[in-house]
Amino acid sequence: MVTTQASELADKITEPYPIRKNALLKDSRGYRIFRVVNITVLYLIMFVTLYPFINIVAQSFSSEGFINSGQVNLFPRGFNVETYKTVMADSMFWVNYRNTVLYTVVGTVIALVMTTMFAYALSKKHLKGRNAFILIAVFTMFFNGGLIPNYVLINALGFKNTLWAIVVPNAISIFNLLVMKAFFENMPEELEEAAAIDGLSTYGTLFRIVLPLSKAVIATMTLFYAVSFWNSWFAAFLYMDKRELYPVTVYLRNLIKGAETATSVGGAGAEVSAVAANIQSVTMVLTVLPIIMLYPFIQKYFVSGVMLGAVKG
Amino acid sequence: MSAHPGVAALEPPITEVTPGDEPPATRRRRRKRTTDPRAKITWRKALRRDWQVYSLLVLPLVFLAVFRYLPMAGNVIAFRRFRPGGSIFGEEWVGLRYFEMFINDAKFWQVFQNTVILGGLSLLIIFPLPIILALLLNELRSAKFKRVVQTISYLPHFMSIVIVAGIVFQLFSMQGTVNQIVEAIGGDPVSFMQRPDWFRTIYITSEAWQTVGWGTILYLAALTQIDNTLYEAARIDGANRWKQTWHVTLPGIRPTMITLLILNIGSFMAVGFEKVLLLYNPLTYPTADVISTYLYRIGIVSSNFSYATAIGLFESIIGLTLILSANAISRRLVGTSLW
Q1: C-beta of residue B77 within 8 angstroms of C-beta of residue B92
Q2: Would the pLDDT of A49 be above 90?
Q3: A311 in contact with B at a CB cutoff of 8 Å?
């Protein structure tokens, strides 16, 4: 029951409107009109949400001439896969892509271990000093050292140009911590009491009883952390000086900014930017591809995670 | 429930992940806490009983101390001269020199104004949108259609800011979709990304695109908590759908609205630093440059660490003050607060 609780919460919000079940009254004329308008508006919202993605995909398959003359919107014009070949032939793209995978994996593993340890300890209601520890953690949500002191610290620690600069400062997200703590708190106490009577230590209880029952929340946390590391760019932008250390987001950022500078210069620059529009689109498609492909499966976990944190945190 | 320990027993026994340095760590903490004589005995007892639990706290607390609280202390360089490569706490006291510097800096007041305008517009325009969308979704009768709309509207939330910026540059470029529409209705193409007067519109639009769908989740959750009998009672009293929404639904989600409003007010000053950094350029500085990007250029690009820290500290304190006062006001007026 505990393990399914999160997904139940997620299902709950997609249930049809409850009134419907025992609605015997007929809708008023005004309400019927409203429902038609409502559905139209929601279709429009879906279109507006999806359009930028469609446009990027269309551009990624289009030839530069059509993009240049502003003829590409929903469908590719001058269909070709040359741009994909060009981007994929760039070895730096793959180096940076591999970095993104590496930073995501290492970052997520460290973050999961740290968050689980912290959340489990804080979920023990009898623990002396618990409230103080929670306060220490939550305070950092509302006040932080700021950009420069963090920058100075990371440099002083010698993290510059290492993966630690990206991974370590983001090892615990307080929001995720609260979600996980709420989940652990909801576990029946008898379970752990029984484990204690059977002679299991705290570690034994955590690894053999609690974690096997926490797969749902661990999945949620993995996804939260993995997506945030996959998407992050600023830490790498700030602390990495060498191109071969960049994640793919910084690679993309440099493409975009490079193209922008070219257009600002004008004249011959306009052509440079049109070539880049192709390449930018392809790079964007390749960067979001893993997320888009996993999205249908992970979305439910994200939703339940947010709700667990909100309801109990 | 009884099956669970059995399931757990099938799992391979895992012994330890935390390094075996618990005893020194616990001793260290005990020594620190003995300053309070009243707590002396109980702490000792607590540590003896729960030392394994405390050992789990060691690494996370060290993390918070080093990566969260040390930078807070590092803000003293706002009052001290800082030498790159020297102590992270600076070299010598200079008093309020750096604060006087930015208070007399006309540039600072311009970016301050930009921050307030951009933050204010975000709050005013973006905050209500998820509420409206959640209410619209709530009126749907087809669970399937609702699920499709939700799935699609959450998608932008998962995109990196770099992707969002890339999309914005493409849509608003000279050949982009927006200019295609402008030309179709007979206008001349506009170089949106180079025009200061368009920056705020573009920023708010992209922010809405990315956040509104995801923002509905908490409201939809709150909507399911509303007691059905309230609607029945309202209907018996002759309330139509609109009146039911006004008198039952909205009061039902009010606590959620207020909580999110407080949180939004708290992040008012920290307007999307990363996004502005990606979207702006020297041509759009007059409207786009905000406190955080200004201090980034002063601090990181020009290496005026102390001056930038002073600005950052000022910004953080305003942020903290805003959230504390919003929380206090809301507790007094409507009885809802974060803590």
Answers
A1: no
A2: yes
A3: yes
